[in-house]
Amino acid sequence: MTQKPATPFPELPAKPIPLQFQSTTFTALKPGPKLIVLGAVHGNEVSGSKAILKVIEEFKTGARFLQKGQVTFVPITNPLAFNKVQRNGDRNLNRNLTPTANPQDFEDHVGNWLAPLLHAHDVLLDIHSFAKGDRPFALFGPADNQGDLQPFAHARAERELAFRLGVDRFVDGWLETYARGVQTRLAYLKKTGLSGDGLSTDPRYGMGTTECMRAGGGYAVTLEVGQHEDPNGPAVAYKAIHNTLAHLGLIAADLPVPVTQYEQLTLEEVIDKHHVEDSFAKPYLSFDRLKKGDLIGVRKSGEEVRAPRDAVIVFPNPGAQAGQEWFYLATERPIPSIDG
Predict the structure, then answer these.
(1) β-sheet bridge partners, residue 280
(2) What is the band of 5 on the pLDDT scale with cuts at 50, 70, 90?
(3) Which of 89, 159, 202, 328 is most buried by its number of CB atoms within 10 A?
(4) Which CATH class is domain 24-261?
């Protein structure tokens, strides 16, 4: 029997798109979980956008049917960054994502629209891609806790979803590591007498889409589908959307099987760029292994930055601005207890 060819992914809207915000929602007759799926939070990360547009069309034509609950799709979350074909519009939307009565930039306006929309849902799947790396991965949040930084009560549900997206690498520890990095940043500014950006010295500046979702009482997973231009990226995103819909029982489909063999990394340290001419010793990719003492980069001052221990480098950003995150260090370990 000849297999029917797969439906191609839709073309993205022609640029420039209007600087307005658009979402598409489908609601079933029966109550159930409320899911929201985001694409293009960063304007040059559009694999998720293509997958979302395909799933929207399937719901519109009846190829998919919502049996309970609600699902909202946002193919292009940051239209300014999308028009610019770059990560940011005026700034990084995945920082300081919170409503404000006095918006100062375009991303503040996005936040005023997006944060209430997130809080009207129970679950978030946020789809991204990366500049350099070897394979897709997912990020989830903390164990259940009642702390001040990121109190949370849905760790089990969040990780059960992450295990069913179709990837076998996971990262956690983002907001805690960012908060520790802010303390290091403040100490450096005090030592040097420099003044830092008010946002970059606030631990809450690490709040992005997933942190905003958790702050509103829901849970969230970020999926990184591969490199920006990877032709397989939309398919990875499409599978993750399907698996999420099936796992939550929003559609009638076979339940996705959780991954059992996986790699888990916990972010532990973030290193800032101090000067625009700070440079890496080589073109690192996310998840490259480091041995204690390995040369990572050299500051403009000539100071060498070496690995303080055996670690994994994550999110190396040679284009980072001075005073912003240059790279993260992570440690491989078993999935932290969801009962902690």
Answers:
(1) 297
(2) very low
(3) 328
(4) alpha beta
Amino acid at 285: L
Rounded distance, CA 340 to CA 336, Å? 8
Taking the alpha carbons of 166, 206, 179, 119 in that order, is the dihedral positive or negative?
negative
pLDDT, tens digit, 9 for 90 and up, residues 136-159: 999 999 999 998 888 999 999 999
Enter the tokens of residue 187: 């100490």
* Residues 6 or more apart in contact with residue 60 via CB below 8 angstroms: none
3-state helix vs strand vs coil in the chain, percent to 5: 25, 20, 50
- Rounded distance between C-alpha atoms, residue 111 and residue 95, angstroms: 10
The CA dihedral of 319, 127, 208, 296, to the nearest 10 degrees, is -30
CB 318 within 8 A of CB 333: no
Helix (H) or strand (E) holding 224: strand 219-227
Q: Are 68 and 32 within 8 A, CB to CB?
A: yes
Relative orientation angle of helices 47-61 and 233-247, to the nearest 10 degrees: 50
For the chain, what are the domain ranges?
Answer: 24-261, 264-335
Q: Determine the residue type at 316.
A: P
Sign of CA dihedral 288, 159, 44, 101: negative
Q: Note the pLDDT tens digit of each residue in 273-303.
A: 989 999 999 999 999 999 999 999 999 999 9
Backbone angles phi, psi at 160, to 5 degrees: -65, -35
Domain 264-335 annotated CATH 2.40.50.100: yes
Rounded to whole angstroms, how far apart are CA atoms 177 and 214? 17
The pLDDT score that the predictor gives to residue 96 is 87
